Amino acid sequence: MHSYHIIQFEEVTSTNEIALQAGKTEFASGTVYVAKRQTAGRGRRGRTWESSLAQNLYFSLLLCPKVAADKAHMVTIVMADALASALRDMTGSEDIFIKWPNDIVMDGKKVSGILTEMGFREDGSYYVVVGVGVNVGKQQFADELSQKATDLESQCGVVLTKEKLLETVLVQFEKRYEKFETVGDLSFLLPHYNGMLINRGRNVRVLDPKGEYEGVSAGINTAGELLVKMSDGSVKNVYAGEVSVRGIYGYV
Ligand code: BTN
Predict the structure, then answer these.
(1) Does any ligand 1 atom lie closer than 6 A to the CB of residue 44?
(2) What share of the chain is helix, strand, coil (3-state, %, to 5)?
(3) 16 lines ligand 1 (CB under 6 A)
């Protein structure tokens, strides 16, 4: 992937949906689907992603990774690292962190999210769609979101140009993605990602549908799993799937 092909839309259901559809017949990495608005923006774990404001950035990147399908989920971590780095560069703020696996937070609130989805073709090959939503301009969040969500303008007092932000994220992503395809795991990214990980070395609560527990977050391993040290000295590997991790006092 040496360059991107950017396709812009005024309004779509969901850029992830468009990219997933396209992946059935498109065999090259690097097409980016961008929309000003989405009518059915999707979030993780079946949630919706509010996408009515054209000031915000909504895009999905179609990838046909060279790594085995069971490693594909790791591109989420690659994108989170690229996104957080791009936002730090563009805003000049160091108060931008990653909430494992893929939320970007400022001042303890979410400013951006990533939804990675996979598709399979009839010939058995697979592809990945990495969808990114960034709250760019100042906005009012509905009551239940206002404690958990924020936007870049409110946090930094600057309005970033969406096009420039997209370009910066894509440049940062490509550097990392090429390494990821060569290396086949996240070892090259570990210190950098873990350095931006919120709550590292602190107590976290793991909301596992099979049972909640608490431990100390020790950062991710080369597969992108969060390592949580338990009080008995054992270490649990948390796989993203259906699990969510909180600080012990709330969202972060
Ligand atoms: C999350 O944090 O729950 C993930 C949110 C991902 C939202 C983006 S917006 C562009 C792309 N298209 C979608 O329908 N979702 C992703």
Answers:
(1) yes
(2) 30, 35, 40
(3) yes
